[in-house]
Amino acid sequence: TLSAICLPFVTPALRRYCLPYVPATNQQVDNVLKALSKSNKHPPNTQKLVDIGSGDGRIVIASAKAGYQAHGIELNMWLVLYSKWRTLFSQGLKGKATFAKQDLWKSNLSKFQKVVIFGVEEMMPDLEKKLTTELLHESEVLACRFPFPNWIPDQVVGEGIDSVWLYKINKPNNFWS
């Protein structure tokens, strides 16, 4: 039983990119919300947000409380179940905060206007290519902990490990600013 419980936490080390579960700090969550509020042309309740590698659901839950239709994708089934359990005890989040066990590389992210990622440095170039291909005009990407190597951020919120880089698609045909 212990091995079955620990397996989802150990297997990230065996994947192409090692994405360990590291919970977001309160400051990181606050910085994501600050970046979202500074960037909004449209009301949050009209926008869909996805947190790639949503972990314990902190970003999704905070975003849903801020008015977004927030969705988390996570490979670790235990974290998905925990995140779903947490939303049961948060007032007014039914249907606003959802989670799924899903591989980000097999996910189509084109339906989301906001994308949040707490990635690792090694995966950012490949993720940059995926997002450039899939996201639509006026989408925004918030990168936490590590910036994208080739994109120029529209703004940076916070410092050090709590930094959030905001990238906007503001030109037709998926050209990034």
Detailed description of the structure:
- The chain is an alpha/beta fold and about 180 residues long.
- The longest helix is centred in the N-terminal third of the chain and has 14 residues, at about 25-40.
- Residues about 175 have low confidence and may be disordered.
- It contains 5 helices and 7 strands; from the N terminus they run ααβαβαββαβββ.
- It has a 7-stranded mixed beta sheet with strand order 3-2-1-4-5-7-6.
- Helix 3 links the parallel strand 1 and strand 2.
- The chain has helices at about 1-10, 25-40, 60-65, 75-90, 125-135, and strands spanning about 50, 70-75, 95-100, 115-120, 140-145, 155, 165-170.
Quickly list its features.
19% strand; 7 strands; 177 residues; 5 helices; seven-stranded mixed sheet; alpha/beta; globular
Q: In summary, what is this structure?
A:
With 177 residues, the chain is α/β, with parallel strands linked by helices.
Task: Average the pLDDT over all residues and give the rounded result.
Answer: 85
What is the 3D shape?
globular
Number of helices, where a helix is a run of at least 4 consecutive DSSP H or I residues = 5
> Into which percent range does the helicity of residues fall?
25-40%
Say how many strands there are. Answer: 7
| Quaternary state of the chains | single chain
Ranges where pLDDT stays below 50 over 5 or more residues in a row are: 173-177
* C-alpha-based Rg, rounded: 15 Å
Order of helices and strands: HHEHEHEEHEEE
What kind of sheet is the major sheet? 7 strands, mixed
Secondary structural class: alpha/beta
Q: Strands across the major sheet, in which order?
A: 3-2-1-4-5-7-6
User: How far apart are the first and last residues' alpha carbons, in Å?
Assistant: 49 Å
Strand content: 15-25%
